[in-house]
Amino acid sequence: MTQSFLKALMTGAVLSVGVASGATAAECIAPANPGGGWDFTCRQIGKIMYDIGVVDQPVQVTNMPGAGGGLAYNHVVTERSDDADLFVAASSATTTRLAQNAYAGMTADQVRFVGAIGADPGVIAVAADSEYQSLTDLVEAIKADPGSVAFAGGSAVGGFDHMKPLMILQEAGFTDITSVKYIGVDGGADAITQTVGGFTQAMTGDMSEIVSFLANGDIRVIAVLTEERVPGFEDIPTAKEQGYDVVAVNWRGLYVPKGISDEKFDEWAGKLQQVADSEEWAKAMADNGLAPFTKVGGDFQAYVDGLVAEINAMSKELGVIQ
Amino acid sequence: MDILANLALGFSVALSPFTLFLAVCGCFLGTIIGALPGLGPSNGVAILIPITFTLGLDATSALVLMTAVYYGAMYGGRISSILLNIPGDEPALMTTLDGYPMAKQGRAGDALVLSGVASFVGALLATVGLMLLAPTLARVAFFFGPAEYFALYLLAFCTLGGMASNNQAKAALAACMGLGIAMIGVDSSSGLPRLTGGNLHLFDGIDFLVAIVGLFAIAEVFFFIESHGKGSSIGVKLDKVRIPWKDIMSTKWTMLRASGVGFVAGILPGAGASLGSFLAYMSEKSIAGEKGGFGTGVPKGVAAPEAGNNSAAGGALVPMLTLGVPGSGTTAVLLALLMTLNITPGPTLFTERADVVWGLIASLLIANFVLLLMNVPMVKIFVKILSVPAWVLLPGVTMISFVGIYSLSGSYFDLLLMVGFGVLGYVLRKLDVPTVPIILGILLGGKMEDALRRAMTLSDGDPTYLFSSPIAIGLWVAAIAGFVAPMFLRNILKKPQAVTD
């Protein structure tokens, strides 16, 4: 609360307009600056929770950027571990970092993952004038000469965007994954710019990052990493149907502090389910290139545990961690 | 004329009594936010975003308010630069170099009006540029790969030596310190933390604002304490504000050139308003030559960075709207606002959401005129806020610095770091080492390193890749010339001076 209170205080001082903050209002921490996926999760879920009446006060959104979500994680674990009115935006990036021990020793079991209600499907795209017409073309080119294709993505080396093409290549039987070129740039749009500009040959990212470039005809999406084709984007083939059984989605979800009661945990899970079922959320997903992906409560916790173990194993193989 | 029709659509959206009222409020708030040291446009806009939701504003109104704040902050930053020698926000850094000496000569009013007019020219030209060229200019980003970006940042560093100090060795030392500080944090190419000592607070590196507030504001407080308030550099008197027509006329070409330079710098993703004002100042300085007296308080030295940074602020909207790649910190926050309003910027925004884009452009034009009125005849109101006695102002500066920095991440660690930077700034100023290159090192160092690392990954470590395109080669030539030329020029130009002395 300290930060939002201070922000309110400063805003008040500047504007002479106080921001009412109810004592019982729930708070959502977005562990990043405004504008990213975590911020979107907090603002959309918070807004819909209030609009459909599952919370009686508007949800306060606090941005707590730092250490790729590590500062917020540390804050929740050490200072707010029994705060029942707090939830925090999370995504695949959260579990990837936990699996790679990137939160300075903190582990995934120090919070409770309450649910995911939507996922941003992973995509592999090339420039519209690229010689690679399909995922198979790209994979075969890398197999023949690993140096011939460089990927650009919005996450750092070893991050989820980097993992996506490597998962596909491993599936295709290519084992020398450290020879695959990857550069991490500032977000998906930047990755597309580099690819369209011809500096890299392919872009790895999320569906939401490419939506606006698709209509423009600058890029060609050669694979989406979901079980089935994504509604609204039926002409984009999945990796699976091209013979590479890889599903990699960037889910959007929440975690809550570990110390809250089981009743409270189930209550949040229920509220999240209601958001997932709402028309407002369906519209928000459609507008932002998200595909339905609902897992709440115990189901989701099990999914997260599995994911952390899987990424941990792969990262060791990659040499990203010891 | 498509553009006129579109503009008419934009004005029909943006021109209502309510939106005009919002524009005036936004301009006023923005100017104050910009003027207060430490509270820059990016955190200012970020802090105000919740207000737009609290007030339940629709997309257009929210955009009008926020862009007015954004442009307002760009105007406001110059006020404290000129009067206090503390940049109100990062792009106003360059304005201190001539603005403050000019104020010390008793021409604070002239400097404020002149910089206000320069800001207007820069922002107006940039808005017109945005209007005419945005869809085309968006393609420029496609020509900039890692090698080109590296050369661009190198250019900025190479021209540093001549700018920040008369001693290039000291400037180079300061730039290296800045680059060193920029290395702290998680290495973006390998994901491993560097120089953090395991401290989670250092994983993201050192925030630029922490360093700037420490090196400028807190160091100033230390000097104030040392002198017991006597002879403190803070608190330049502003007697009368009149319009310095002569200065405005004599700097008209400077303003136009600086606007052009700033606009191009703004368009390049990630470069932003700081680089815009920097390049505008440097190019004007080299045009004026040693005799131009840049750094001693000349009108051109005030007009150039202000026209440059306001024009870059407009330019930075181009990649944000057309590619979804923010051109600066503040546009990143504006991007966040657009996304929350369910407007996804991208190449198709101009055709699909014409009402939003042209409403935004119309509101930028409106905001710009409001700001000119507010910042020229009414500048005294803002000055009043800052021209309180030093014994009131400095505790105020200290408080705002602490509150502003605390609001960034809500951690007291940043406060300690800021005080540390204050001590560093104090020591460096005692040693006559310029602090501006440190700031630029922190600001650009990480990006420059990223560009180099990416270039090396793509080329398998082949250094010739850095010279592989005409754009990159051109930038390299300019960088080397920019570093070497001042040494020779200084020798040539100093000789006749020695004779006359």
UniProtKB/TrEMBL annotation, chain A:
UniProt entry tagged with the keyword Ribonucleoprotein: no
Entry keyword set: Signal
Signal peptide: 1-25
Family: Belongs to the UPF0065 (bug) family.
Protein name: Tripartite tricarboxylate transporter substrate binding protein
Organism: Roseobacter sinensis
UniProtKB/TrEMBL annotation, chain B:
Transmembrane regions: 7-33, 45-71, 111-134, 140-162, 169-186, 206-225, 258-281, 323-344, 356-376, 388-408, 415-445, 465-489
Magnesium in keyword set: no
InterPro entries xrefs: DUF112_TM (IPR002823)
Pfam family, one: TctA
Coiled coil: none
Presence of the UniProt keyword Zinc in the record: no
Keywords noted in UniProt: Membrane, Transmembrane, Transmembrane helix
All residue ranges annotated as the DUF112 domain in the record: 20-440
Protein name: Tripartite tricarboxylate transporter permease
Organism of origin: Roseobacter sinensis
